[in-house]
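hey m, so remember when u said the tokens were messed up on ur end? i reran from scratch. heres the input so u can diff it against urs
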Amino acid sequence: MDKMLRAAELGLCDHCLGRHFASMGHGLSNAERGMAIRVVWTMLTGRDYRPVGPEECPVCRGLFSKIEKYAEMAIEALSKYEFETFLVGSRIPEELEEADRRVAEELGTEPEPLKRELNREVGKIVSARTGKEVDFEDPDIKVIIDARFDFVELQVKPLFLYGRYRKLVRGISQTKWPVPALGGRSKYGTSVEELVAGPVMEAAGGTEHLFHGMGREDVDARMLGNGRPFVLEIRNPVKRSLDLEALREEINRRAGGMIEVLELRPATRRDVERVKSLRPPKSYEVGVRIEGGVGREELEDALRRLVGVIEQRTPTRVLHRRADLVRRRRVYEAELVDLKGEEAVIRVKCEAGTYVKELMHGDGGRTRPSLAELLGKKVEVKYLDVVWVHDEEVE
């Protein structure tokens, strides 16, 4: 009681007076608690009751008189966005927090922070007027009140969509490869990323996008079979509830047979982490030319001996961008699909990170064993397709 009476003599507003005794009187707001303390102080001292507004408060210095203003600013900023949940945060001038610390030391109290009071009171108004709920864990939008400069900013949670794509043509990259000399246009004309993201960006009204693939195939390789998993991240989406099946169909229609999205569903940041961290085995179909030709039995025998652990020194074709290291990789399966003269079609299943072209031609001895080494013949890779991503094996 003594602390409350002393606090009432410091000229604090109801919000700040109540904050310093926030653990007392459950079911009351800090402003109601502060007013109650002031009434008790008036009755015990016999002095006239005189309310103290935030503008007169030596601690908040008018901060809590702006609650309505900040709520209106927040509602206006939020009005263009589709959202279900939000959370209010704030940045407070340091001098106000320092003044609050001095009062707490003088009284021996542990006040509820200025920020928490402001966030809660603004949040109550925003929730009541928009019908949206406060979410402390993972809100769609964070409203940040900057009380230092009197403005409100929004931090909009990205929209994440999980899918699988098939790349049906050669000559396009997975992600955009901008070239300054081409005015920022992609080196390969377009990319899987651009073909997928374009319709989604239009529908969601985002400001930028990121494409997270579970690995990537070479530009000159196709991605067939069950498709490669990906997560598309849309930054600052205006709209969140999208007709994903209609969107998937629109992506495929616009792609004109270059790619095909097999599925599209809502995702989270955890899906991004999963897609980027998993390294599943993959199956490939490789078309090769074996100089001078080879018999079926000899080729099948070489493929059987190719199964197991191989050592690959960084291929010469990527030495300009990767360290020159020796990597051990496992080949799980290698089988002959077709053989006509010097031309063969081979299917292999390999550990993630295996350089499959080099597994065939040997890269001048940098990959051992290779099909070329086992046959003792020059092997030329004519084409390469990824035919299955075995992510079900590493869940």
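this time it looks ok to me. Residues 159-274 form a domain with the Alpha-Beta Plaits fold (CATH 3.30.70.2510). if urs says something different then somethings off w ur setup not the seq
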